[in-house]
Automatic annotation (TrEMBL):
Name listed for the protein in its UniProt record: Succinate--CoA ligase [ADP-forming] subunit beta
Domain spans labelled ATP-citrate synthase/succinyl-CoA ligase C-terminal: 271-392
A Pfam family: ATP-grasp_2
Cofactor binding: number and manner: Binds 1 Mg(2+) ion per subunit.
All residue ranges annotated as the ATP-grasp fold succinyl-CoA synthetase-type domain in the record: 2-210
Residues the entry annotates as binding ATP: 50, 57-59, 106, 116
């Protein structure tokens, strides 16, 4: 589950990580009030107005702007709220902005130039350890840095049983070229950042940029936080931060029905039991010249009610031109699934307007095939994987 920047920053701050301070606002008037409050609290005269959507690259898309007085705060906030923000990480239609973060300007002039770094905390599945990835090249696309100047990206592996050790925090500050107060600030910053990551059961923190201000403070200017959804049951406060407006409406609805559904761009809807088989089915569709329209794991009990719910979800996607049902009957018997498909189809009547290919394999597969073939419905049966793929190809042609 992803958090908004302002929520991520609040989380970090609660663990003692220094952040660029800000107040979230739902409209231009609230933005002005927020700016006034920030000026009282921090003394800042300038503010940055930042679109709060679940996508990076907002700066490039015009979703992060500097306001030098309250009139500009009002104007920019009014502009950004309600816009469909297009960034390198959104679709071409963009994402609707419902709120902005009004933040203190932290790039103020001083003895030194402000400097931007990159830092993320994530799990290295290969070594089974957490790692902190960081770079002197902050503020830009880390993918570009990785491609063009990979030697400027450092990693520090953390043993989860000891947590981050003081020498590791110092090594990070040293590799970033820091000294004096900024060095001390950085060791505190990474130590608290790591603690926040572990204690919130996050799967990703990406802070880009981490800023060294002109007076040598180290702070998070941006925060991308991804929480591990499987651990949310023990973080009720964090679970409550979910913003359904940022998620695909179909995915939210499927989740409520207990279906594991991921919306994709293709033309062949998939209904499969088991995540592994669902992945293999998507590969098969691609090989047959189609593109999967979704990932859908209906789970173990593919009865009529579940199959019908799955049909309805799949058909909400107008790009679907055919549906491939691929079920392995291990514990669930194929004839029960076949009956479920037939019942659901009859129940839905005209709502099903695309060809359906059903491949059932496993317990009672032959009985299931007879059931489908004799149903009188526009459903094609297959027993082999390849046969199913060929039929998909035929209906798409
Ligand atoms: P992103 O584009 O979605 O990654 O959003 P960021 O929060 O990283 O902001 C984008 C850019 O806005 C940063 O890299 C900074 O260059 C700039 N920015 C952020 N905060 C401030 C600020 O307080 N003052 C100024 N002048 N620029 C800022
Ligand atoms: Mn950023």
């Amino acid at each position: 589950m992803n958090l908004h920047e302002y929520q991520g920053k609040e989380l970090l701050s609660s663990f003692g990580v220094r952040i660029q301070r800000g107040i979230v606002a739902q409209n231009a008037e609230e933005a002005v009030a927020a700016a006034k409050k920030l000026t009282e609290d921090t003394g800042t005269g300038w503010h940055v107005i930042k679109a709060q959507v679940h996508a990076g690259g907002r700066g490039k898309g015009g979703g992060v702007k500097l306001a030098k007085n309250l009139d500009q705060v009002k104007e920019i906030a009014g502009q950004i709220i309600g816009m469909d923000l297009v960034t390198p990480q959104t679709s071409a239609e963009g994402k609707r902005v419902h709120q902005v973060l009004v933040a203190e300007d932290v790039y103020y002039p001083g003895d030194n130039e402000p400097e931007e770094y990159y830092m993320s905390v994530l799990l290295n599945r290969g070594t089974g350890r957490n790692m902190i990835m960081y770079s002197t090249e902050g503020g830009m696309d880390i993918e570009t840095v990785a491609e063009e100047t990979p030697h400027l990206i450092f990693t520090e592996e953390i043993d989860p049983s000891t947590g981050i050790l003081p020498f590791q925090a110092r090594r990070i500050a040293f590799n970033l070229g820091l000294s004096g107060m900024a060095f001390k600030e950085m060791t505190k910053f990474v130590t608290n950042l790591y603690k926040a990551y572990v204690e919130s059961d996050s799967s990703l923190f990406e802070i880009n940029p981490v800023l060294k201000t002109s007076d040598d403070k180290i702070m998070a200017v941006d925060a991308k936080v991804t929480l591990d959804a499987n651990a949310l049951y023990r973080h009720k406060d964090l679970a409550a931060l979910r913003d359904l407006r940022e998620e695909s409406a179909i995915e939210v609805e499927a989740g409520e029905l207990g279906l594991n559904y991921v919306d994709l761009d293709g033309n062949v809807g998939c209904m499969v039991n088991g995540a592994g088989l669902a992945m293999a089915t998507m590969d098969l569709i691609k090989q047959a010249g189609g593109e999967p329209a979704n990932f859908l794991d209906v789970g173990g009990t593919a009865d009529a009610a579940r199959v019908e719910a799955a049909f309805r979800i799949i058909l909400k996607d107008s790009g679907v031109k055919a549906i491939l049902i691929n079920i392995f009957g291990g514990i669930v018997r194929c004839d029960r699934v076949a009956q479920g498909v037939v019942d659901a189809y009859k129940n839905m009547g005209d709502a099903i307007n695309v060809p359906i290919i059903v491949r059932l394999q496993g317990t009672n597969a032959d009985i299931a095939k007879d059931l489908i073939d004799n149903s009188g419905l526009d459903v094609m049966s297959a027993t082999e994987f390849q046969e199913a793929a060929d039929k998909v190809q035929a209906v798409l042609a």
